[in-house]
Amino acid sequence: MEISSKHQKSSKKRKRKKKPTIENGLEAVVKPECFDGLTNWTKLQQVRSFLSHTKKFLLGILITFVHFSTILCDIISQTLAQVRNCLSIISQKVLEKNTKERVSEDSKSAGQSRFSKSYKKKRINKNSQNKNSSKKMKTVEEFEFDFNKRRDSNSTDTDVIDNEETERIDYTGLTKTVALDCEMVGVGPKGKDSILARVSIVNAFGNCIYDEYVKPKERITDYRTEVSGVRPADLQKGKDLYEVQKDVLSIIDGRRVVGHDLKHDFDVLFIGHPRSLIRDTSKYKPFRELSNGRTPSLKKLASVILNLDFQSGEHNSVQDAQVAMMLYLKHKKAWERSIKRNRRK
Fold it and tell me: What SUPFAM superfamilies does the record point to (predicted)?
């Protein structure tokens, strides 16, 4: 009986679980029952660590791939935007070239017609006088455009009349110097791009000789009425761009063109003009000195030089052209002298 009791005690001792031991400074993991057949438990631990490292490595590769793909998408979108801008510039140049060719072809065909140049000039002058008989110089809002008082004392009316001597300030025909101004409306996203909406031309006496609205060929997203003064109803009765281009080119051909920041006006008209015949009030050096060498606004020039309250609300292209003409006539002698001096250099 004593032997059997000792045997039972020894069997109980054998059934006790072994406590984990420390091997190589690491706590040994107790073997589960399902791995009793494995002789080397450390190999299983190495496999597990290898799999965890592999998982981390693959996740890192995936994250870097996503990061570089986003960068690549940004680069592609920027490249596409640049290509789109280049294509728009090219299309504008092609359109300008085509319009010039069409205008030149029309002028050639008109020259070969049975009407002589003198007859056509008389006919154009009669039409312009009939159309613009109601567009004589009047008081505009709060001030009056008195061109005789504000004209350069050394310039005479006969300096600006075509083949005619007159002292009438109500002359509505063409003169050697004309002033041009355009109003634009916005197209495209948020109305950032500009297209032509209205063109106005006045002669050297400030009388309007041309004033037309232009039918848009694109969907207008911003009429800019608070600045341009253009409304949807105005453009419905407008002319096509090609007709307006043809009219403007026939008026300014061989004449001095006065205006403020004329580059933008010629750009939206898709026409050009000889540099020697352009008198831009935003480029004249004495005017720029009023803004410390920067481009002065037409409102500031009118206020400082002409003492006029100007552009207090909606802009008017006829009024803008009149003010530009007044600025030019007031400084005409010095302006033309500086141009001659620069040509000699």
Answer: Ribonuclease H-like
